[in-house]
Amino acid sequence: MHIFFIILKKLKSTISYVYFFIYIYILCMNSRIIRTRFAPSPTGMLHIGGLRTALYNYILARKFNGNFILRIEDTDQTRFVPEAEKYIIESLKWLGIMPDEGIINGGPYGSYRQSERKEIYQEYAKKLVDLGHAYYAFDTAEELDAMHKKLESAKIANPQYNAISREWMKNSLTLSQSEVESRIKNGEKFVIRFKMPKEGVVRFHDEVRGWVKVDVSTLDDKILLKSDGMATYHLASVVDDYLMKITHVIRGEEWLPSAPLHILTYKAFGWEDVMPTFVHLPLLLKPEGQGKLSKRDAEEHGFPIFPLSWSDAKTGKEVLGFREKGYLPEALINFLALMGWNPGNNQELFSLDELIENFSLEHLGKSGARFNIKKAEWFNKQYLSRKSNDFFIPFIKEHVDENDIEKLNSICDIVRERAAFTPDIWNYSKTFFHAPKELEQNDKFINTISTSFAKDFLLEAEKVNFVYEDIHQLMNTMLENKNLKYKDVMPFFRIALFGSSNGPDVVKSMIILGKEESFNRVNTLLKTYEG
Question: Does the active-site annotation cover 295?
């Protein structure tokens, strides 16, 4: 405080004082603890776009040592899905982006479930009415329908309940105060609507879109409190963000049209000084690049868009999730982070800590991000290939009782080069324990040249030590002597060993299988070819 007064004495002009206090104000604002929130609605399973929103909120909070809050926005009870909340929590747990506060672990600003905050919203809705920024509306469904028809007949392009139409509707702006009080006292149903200004422009800054300007004449008087006494998203989200001291609202682009109302609501309450920074994320687009990614796209292309598998209540079908498909959470995090955010360099692989260190709102893109499932698969393969054998071995031992650690490690070394998903670990390992039941029939690979070579190879292999170096040298020498290439004979051996012309290194595989098993499998194919 002493230093503060010394600086004030040294300022020589009014302008200097102004700039100094502006600087102090900005400094104080910037010193606010960063608080982000993920606020999904439990109306269905968590979409991959929602998961990306949660990730960005988590990363920003971690970057500035702030708090990440999980709030459930369940004001729409007609679309409530009982198991959805549990699904959301399980998805975040799987990804490892757990909240600091919220429905899981509580916190100082609970409840974090909006259906349990009904009285709070009613209080603030009434406050807006008292401030003159909202009003009671008693219109019936039939009266609202009549209003829309009247506006349509007048060739109004966008018929809505707004600053013009409200003047002939049944609300507290057109009725006397005594009649309004009487209606409420008699239990007549009403809603509370926001009183949109008749003219003017709403101007606000979005971290992705820049400055956004919207003419209020295009906006309607949205319902803030429904006739059942429950708040709509518009009121509940603003009130909760204020009470929970949220500094950044990071949400999908689909909420951008609602932002002007939310800005005006903040101003109506007099909360401009603590208004959060708005960040509206670009859409996730179809693989073709046109239109928003949907569940139907996933079904048509055969890829997941939900973090975890779930049973569709409407169809009864099991919908595949990223986890059950065999994706690693760190791979999915990396993939999602780069769908809308650019690090500004050519780096593609980021650990979660590296994402936190490098992330910035300035590098979020404006354009929609095309959902490239092949890229997601690439990420998963990269992360899976970096796993230790200790990670791979349990996936094998889940199916077979094998305690030969040397054999298991050798199999893992081979599988790592091929596996893209965790189920691949056993799929590519099982033929080392069970001979293939079916052998690919392919004249291109099973012919006189390959069978003749295989017979000679078995005879010569009997004469050398059955170890990798000797067998590998024998294979190379015989190919050279017979003027053949690997492609001429290796598919035959792979069919014999694994049933398919596509497979791992032949010599390495033979060493793992052992001499007897390898020879038996090759001889089985030879006998099949000969008759």
Answer: yes
